[in-house]
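Q: I'm writing up a methods section and want to include an example of the input and output format. Could you take the sequence below and give the corresponding predicted structure tokens, formatted cleanly so I can copy it straight into the document?
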Amino acid sequence: MVNSSQHDTALVAEALGKVLAGEPLGEDTLYALADIDSPEGKEALIEGAAEITRKFCPRKFDSCSIVNARSGRCSENCKWCAQSAHFNTKCEVYDLIDSDEARHVARYNAERGVGRFSMVASGKATRGKTLDGICAILRKVNEEDNIETCASLGLLGEDELRKLWETGARRYHCNLETAPSYFPALCSTHSQDEKLATIAAARKVGFKICSGGIIGMGETRRQRMELAIVLRSIEPVSIPINVLSPIPGTPLEGTPLIEEDEIVLTVALFRFAHPSVQLRFAGGRARMSRDAQLKAMRSGVNGAIVGDLLTTIGSTIAEDAALVAEAGYDF
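A: Here is the clean output for your methods example:
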């Protein structure tokens, strides 16, 4: 009789063989991988993901820095977010970052080898004078600061996205956040369909897409795989994997912390679903141990938000570069 660990390792071996041969895994197989629960099966998943990463992903680690272009007073009620006006989180509030400050962040990171600079704004959508101001900053960065640019400005339409494209920005970020089956439990002021419409418009304009989500918000492992599967339909070049750090004042402030082993396993599952896409550490990795971060990098994470000027990262660019090198990548 075949026991559960033998069944799990055989399932991983079969799936790994298909991925290494260039065959995308079907949804049934991906959900079956997410259901694996034996220690041997989980370890096989992590080791298999590392092999996929070595075969399909470049050794150059994709680093990016962000600046909060507009902060607070967001009309949306996303239960994880400090910037929602629905919750009392005492977050910083301002309408538009000073241009010189934003340019300083861009230049500082460019001089230290960081590959990308992204402007992120609170709110459902960024329009009017705020959008014009952000576009003016991005245009200057592209012309003078020697770093690629991205933006995350909410649910924009095609006209706003074309204005952004004209600055020289070439990647647009819009997270799906979680599985379609779980999203309505976390946000009721906009839908995932609206996000997908923005992503479709951005792709039409020409942008490459950066889209992922947050894990540890109470979703199941199958729902994390559900997110990975729906992300395949939008063909992102980068998938940010945020780890929830419960924020006092938000409805999720009492959410139990997701365990490090589960974070690493989630990275491995995403790598099986997305063999060649950049999997990017974003928010929340500061609470992970160095060993867990290394294991996640070896099993699939090949990009990250970095930056000495970002208090949420919890590490310096130099420390991140050393970690990246230890994981076997070039920073």
